[in-house]
Amino acid sequence: MTNSTAHLITPRIAEQKHWPQQAAAHRLTTRVPMVSDSATVAQAEALIKKHARSFDTIHYLYAVNETGRLMGVLSLRDMYRHLPETLIKDAAVTAGLVAVRPEERQDKVAYLALKHDLKAIPVVDKDRTFLGVVPGDAILKILYRDTRRDLLRLANIHSGAEPFDNVLTASVGRLLRHRVPWLLLGLLGGLVSVRIISGFEETLAANVVLAAFVPLVVYMSDAIKTQMEIFVIRDIAVEHKLPFGRYFTKQGFVTLCLSAVFGTVLFLFALALYQDLALSLAVALALSIAILSSIVTGLVVPYLFSRTKFDPANTSGPIATVIQDIISISIYFAVAARLLS
């Protein structure tokens, strides 16, 4: 066996210093069996036996041409199924080769390995020159890292963020510091709601029954807001790159359907109970609009907080709730004043 047909490759990739932190290049090994595609199975076997202890991974044999371009991949299991005189280029898989560029993200490499059931992923440059492979143990480390990160994100623990408040171990002072400011904002929002209601005293005096529907409108919009809030926080944790525009559009359509359904139900109920068409239309329309407005507080607010270092358990809930309450009350009395004046 000569070096022209089988040899350990030169670690050219090590000279590069500009790869992104999560690039596949940082998981690359060059100590793999590589042979000329014109070599025979017998020559490849001799190479593996001679250098077995030097390889970082020997699941696959990589065939290259005279310029170092990756031409095919042959698993060791398949290699021993061929006759010794068979040429590697005739035995190796050449069509549909799975390979990545050195700048490819590591999680994409792990995804390809799982999708195609591969124990190592070859790395090539823009000219398909073979640079090395991301071996199986590196792929497992990537998967472990990403799984651990996703589980922590699902628990709302982020690197660089403030530590998660453990109620059993954190001091009372710490718990109060992290909760009181946001609850104070909620209290101020409640006072704003009181001020809004007092501005519609004449409308309430003329239609006392309107007061009976205030808790219902506020509750329904808050409930749908809370559902969306839980969904978006969960989905942001699970999805690495949540397509928020498409996500917002789909949730918006669902919310529109919910507003139509519950608005119709309330209209029929109010009409049957009070025999007042104008009143029934006012409370039903107000409920529908309030439910539609919940998409802002249920999606946009938690999404914005997910981009900060604040714990959404302390921030998103109180802030989104008070904003939704103010919006719902404003919509309710504005619609009622317009239709019942």
Automatic annotation (TrEMBL):
Example of a GO cellular component annotation carried by this entry: membrane
Gene3D superfamilies: CBS-domain (3.10.580.10), SLC41 divalent cation transporters, integral membrane domain (1.10.357.20)
GO molecular function: magnesium ion transmembrane transporter activity
Keywords, comma-separated and alphabetical: CBS domain, Magnesium, Membrane, Transmembrane, Transmembrane helix, Transport
Protein's name in the database: Mg2+ transporter
Spans traversing the lipid bilayer: 180-198, 204-224, 253-274, 280-305, 317-340
Membrane topology, as annotated: Multi-pass membrane protein
UniProt subcellular location: Membrane
Similarity comment: family membership: Belongs to the SLC41A transporter family.
UniProt-listed InterPro entries: CBS_dom, CBS_dom_sf, MgtE_transporter, SLC41_membr_dom, SLC41_membr_dom_sf
Cleaved signal peptide residues: none
Entry-linked Pfam families: CBS, MgtE
Species of origin: Candidatus Magasanikbacteria bacterium GW2011_GWA2_56_11
Domain spans labelled CBS: 28-91, 93-151
